[in-house]
Hints:
This protein is α/β, with parallel strands linked by helices. It contains 13 helices and 15 strands. It is globular and about 55 Å long.
Amino acid sequence: MTRNLHDRHRAVLPDWLALYYREPIELTHGEGRHVWDAEGNKYLDFFGGILTTMTAHALPEVTKAVAEQAGRIIHSSTLYLDRPMVELAERIAQLSGIPDARVFFTTSGTEANDTALLLATAYRGSNQILAMRNSYHGRSFSAVGITGNHAWSPTGLSPLQTLYVHGGVRTRGPYAQLSDGQFIEACVADLEDLLGHTRNVAALIAEPVQGVGGFTSPPDGLYAAFREVLNRHGILWITDEVQTGWGRTGDHFWGWQAHAHSGPPDLLTFAKGIGNGMSIGGVVARADVMNCLDSNSISTFGGSPVTMAAGLANLGHLLEHDLQGNARRVGGLLLERLRAIGAQLPVVREVRGRGLMAGIELVRPGTDEANPEAAAAVLEAAREGGLLIGKGGGHDTSVLRIAPPLTLTVAEAEQGAAILERALHTV
């Protein structure tokens, strides 16, 4: 049955639409941190539909909110007042840390970043954007144009002029051998030098922890140091929180808060986890930036009553149950366990991350060379052992990505780590 569905998939969908596994699986239902495929196999989910099932599969509060709202009205558009949208916007504006914040809802992180780029370029009257090397910001024409990871940027054509900055990857590149303080100084000096060769840059867009790039991040404080330079030039700071938001990193509710001593960002983009699988994205910005557009705009599906009801229920559950604290506690234990496993295996170059956002970088033993074949083999072996994980990485796809729902228990963390250990030993 699954093989037949795979054949039908290949007959009508694009060749570039990636599928995991040599024999792709169809997931039919889930509960908590587990999912089941069409063959009846049960898996512990350590990827959450690409960091999107943030709280749990079939979370009762979310399914109830969706059903109740769908029973009233499913759609109206932003041309009408929408109570769930206003209520969720109020909560997100307050949580964002941005003063006098305004919120615009979209249907995805790609669209959120696209909107942030529109706002920043309109506000500054410039199409020049600073982005980080190894970055990923979505699939739209403008988003792939600023993506600093060639595996996810299929065209060099872009409406924007993009300049790439050092700093998103701590342990590779020309500054890897420096101390954290020296690393920040070198990256700031590079930024200063870059700005000396251009003019009127609109914004810097950066993921506090690079997601598709393999869960890499700079030392805490880098973006705060960048912000001091940006402020002198009037350049806006966009923090892409599509994967880092809502407490996943454990230490902070937003990733930018690890770089907070120069103040909050001018714009913040979000998506994925807030909807727990429902299609929600958005931008938070200072009022003067958000209101700078001088033309009409609406959103047909952004702020849909059903998705907003889901977001409100999901955010309420997350805050009431301190899932950020759970990400810090259980994520810390999981990272310790993974680092202990990695220390014994020459194929593991580094285990990195924070909270429930962990990356295991694989190399050819005895070298620093990326090992995508090993990553693919571990992905397969983990699935056979009953665990779903993701993969990514910069120069080559050789990083295992681990991002379970934030309700993960200690017992499930131990179970997942044990499966991963066995899978890693297969290579």
